[in-house]
Amino acid sequence: MPNVTVTIVFRGLMVFNKQPNTPPLGTMEIGFVDALSAGHTGGGHASSDVHIPRILTMKDGVLAEVFDLRNRPQDLGMVRNWELVVTDPTQALQPLTTDEVGANFDRRSHNHAKDFRFITDFEANDLHNRPLSRELNTRQLLLVLYVHNGEFYTKLQSPTLRRTRVNGPPQPVTYGKAAAVVGLDITLADTGTVKLMAGGTTGVEIFNFTTEPGVSTLYEISNAPPDVPADAPTPTNAPGHFHMYYDKLFNRPPTDQFDLVRDDLAPAPDPALCGVGYMGLRTDPL
C-alpha cells in the first residue's frame, strides 16, 4: 500500500515543548500564545500585535483556502487541549522525531538548514541559559496542541539575527539563524487521515488535512498577525513581536529580557521576528 506525506508548517507566537517519555513514543506540545487582543508593554503598532490563529492551505504553491479558527468560538479559548489525530494504525508505530544532524549545534555555523535545533530555544545558553518553568504562566496559553507522530524540522530559516538586551545596555551579539517556520511531515498509508481535534481523540473535529494525487499540498498553522495592518503600512524599522513572549507568557518580564533583530530592514511584518519558540530544558507539561 503506497504511503503519502502530510506536510504541516507552524508560524507565529507558539512555544514548543518536547515530552519524550509520554506514551507511546513521545509527544510535542505546542502552546499558542494568546494574542487575540491588542495591548502590550513593548513598542510597535497595537494593530499588528493582534495574532490570529488560522490554517492556510497551499496547493501547488498557491494560497487556496484560509480557515479562521475564530469561527470556532465554542472551541477556541474554551477547549485547552487539542490534538493532531492520525487514524492510520501503521503511523502509530512510528516515534515522533526531530531532524538533527551532528552531536554539536551552533546556529551561527551549522550547515544542515533543516535541523530542528534552529528553533529559538528560550532556555538555551544563547538566550536565558536556565530553566524557565517557574517564570512562565502557561495557563495564559490560548490552547495546547499535542502531536504524537511525524518528524519536525526547520522549514524556513531566518536571516542572521542579532541578540540585544531590552532592559539595559543593548550589548548586541551575533545570535545566528533561527527557525522562522517549523515543518512537520507525517507519513501514513493512503487510507489514513490526519485530523485536528479539539478535546483530543474523543473531541470535536476541527479540520481534516487531506492530500490529492498530483497536487502538492502544504498546510500552515499560523498564530500571526495579518500580512499587513489595515490602518497604516508597517514602518520598515518597526520592531518584531519577540517581546510579546515576555508580555503574554511570563509571569513578569525577567531582568534579562532580549530581542532578536535582523540587520536589514523588512518592508512588512517579518515571519522571522514572529517565530516559534522552544523550551529545551523543560520536563513538565505545558
Compact overview of the structure:
The chain is 2% helix and 38% strand. The protein has 286 residues and is an all-beta fold. The longest helix is centred in the last third of the chain and has 6 residues, at 243-248.
Notes on the protein architecture:
The protein is mainly β. The protein has one domain. Helices cover 2% and strands 38% of the residues. It is built from one helix and 18 strands. The strands form three sheets. The protein has an eight-stranded mixed β-sheet with strand order 8-18-2-3-9-6-14-15, with no helix packed on it. A hairpin with a 7-residue loop joins strand 2 and strand 3. The longest helix has 6 residues. The termini are far apart. The relative contact order is 0.30.
Essential attributes:
286 residues; mainly beta; seven-stranded mixed beta sheet; 38% strand; eight-stranded mixed beta sheet
Helix content: under 10%
Distance between the termini: 37 Å
Spatial order of strands in the largest sheet? 8-18-2-3-9-6-14-15
Overall geometry comes to globular
- Domain count, please report it: 1
How confident overall, as mean pLDDT? 88
Q: How many strand elements?
A: 18
The whole-angstrom Rg is 18 Å
Structural class: mainly beta
